[in-house]
Amino acid sequence: NERMDSTVISDVVNIASRIQKHALEHGHFVLLSEDVRAGLKNPADTCVTVTPLGEIKLRGRTQTMKLFEVQR
Length: 72
What we know:
The chain has 72 residues and is α+β, with helices and mostly antiparallel strands. The chain contains two helices and three strands; from the N terminus they run αβαββ.
């Protein structure tokens, strides 16, 4: 169903926008959702540090989301 597909895509775009806004408002350079973090290789094998920020309430969302900050 095309309508359902666009709704799912729109939700992902809205969440990404809310995460970006949260990052800008709180001085973070790069934030990841829990889903994106789960898809990464083991951060210990990379040159970045991924730090959990905890459960964050994003504007327009009823549930909190686990967010992670990426640092070099």
